[in-house]
Amino acid sequence: MAAIVRRTYHKRDKDTGSEPEGIQTDMSNLRPTGEATPRTDPLVPGADIPNADIPGADIRAGRLRRAPENFLTADDVRLVGKGRRDFLRASFLAAVAAGSAAAPGSLATAAAATGDGVGDPNILNPTPWGSSLGLPVAANPYGQPSKHERGLVRRQSPGLTQVPAASVSFAPLQGLFGIITPSGLHFERHHQGWQDIDPTRHRLMVNGARPDFVKTPKVYTMDDIMRLPPVSRMHFIECGANTGMEWGNVAVPTVQYTHGMLSCSEFTGVPLRTLLEDCGADLKAAKFVLAEGGDGSSMTRTIPIELVLSGEVMVAYGQNGEMLRPENGYPLRLVVPGVQGVSWVKWLRRIEVGDRPYATKDEAVHYIDLMPDGQHRQYSSIQECKSVITSPSGGQTLLDKGFFTISGLAWSGRGAVRRVDVSTDGGINWTQATLQTPVLSKCLTRFTLPWNWDGRPALLQSRATDETGFVQPAYGQLRAVRGTRSIYHNNAIQTWQVAESGDVNNVQIL
Amino acid sequence: MSRSCKAALLGIVLFGWAAPALADGFANVGRPATPAEIKTWDIDVGPDFAGLPKGSGTVSRGMEIWEEKCASCHGTFGESNSVFNPLVGGTTAEDIKTGHVAALKRTDFPARTTFMKVATVSTLYDYIRRAMPWNAPKSLSDDDVYAVLAYLLNLAEIVPDDFTLTDATIRDVQQRMPNRDGMTTAHALWPGPDLPGMLAKPDTANAACMTGCKPKAELASQLPDHARGAHGNIAEQNRLIGPVRGQRTGPDTAAAELPSPALALAEQSGCLSCHAVDTRVVGPSYSEIAARYRGKNSADALVSKVKAGGEGAWGAVPMPPQDDLSIDDAKTLVAWILSGAPQK
Question: Do A506 and B117 touch (CB under 8 A)?
Answer without folding.
Answer: no
